[in-house]
# Entry
Amino acid sequence: MKKIFFLLVCIFLSISVKPQSYIGAWERYDTSEEGEKLKSVVIFADGYQVITTYNADTGKFIYTNGGTWKSEGDTMTEKVEFDTRNPERVGSEISFKLTINDSIISIVGDDMDMKRIDSGNPGKLQGAWLMSGRFRDGEEQLRDTSGPRKTMKILSGTRFQWIAYNTETKQFMGTGGGTYTTIDGKYTENIEFFSRDDSKVGLHLSFDFNLVDSNWHHKGFSSKGDPIHEIWSLRENDYE
# Structure
């Protein structure tokens, strides 16, 4: 009986001290000085993150930044790869302390609480992906993903965002995002913001998807109506 009690105590303690995971999506609502309702969403994948703010009613894009991240204890360190408000920060590292529980994440010393949206489920494409190729006229054309110019797509279990940028020139080319589903081989995006064209907000785009040798094949029609067949490769966590 004592052994059983001791075992139960050990199990309880192991569960209670299990660290909370940042992986997934988080959100926060604010009001601008002009009275606009703003929505901020952060997506954490393994080693990569993005945070974006946009008008919750119209989808008008306001700001995004992101890059790589790692945590030690309650301290998170981010290496900036893109920042639309302060591009000079690209390449720099910033560290700050966080508190986290199952439903709220907070930056210590800053009035910024974010509520968990999901923990990386149920979508089948959770992670950070890099555009690594496409098919043109039936022929596969691969691209080098190690260069400074990147198109990255970060997905939680329910949220997605793509970002095009260059870490060498610190140039930002565009972004878009919202919610997504993966059901019966169909990947469907519901666009909530699009930096290049607000008129795309509200579109629902459905694509065929499948995983081939761990690469994500993405086939359908773009927001402009052009046929696409893209290849995305899961980005490894290489934050040193």
In short: The longest helix spans residues 2-16. The CA atoms of residues 9 and 215 lie 43 Å apart.
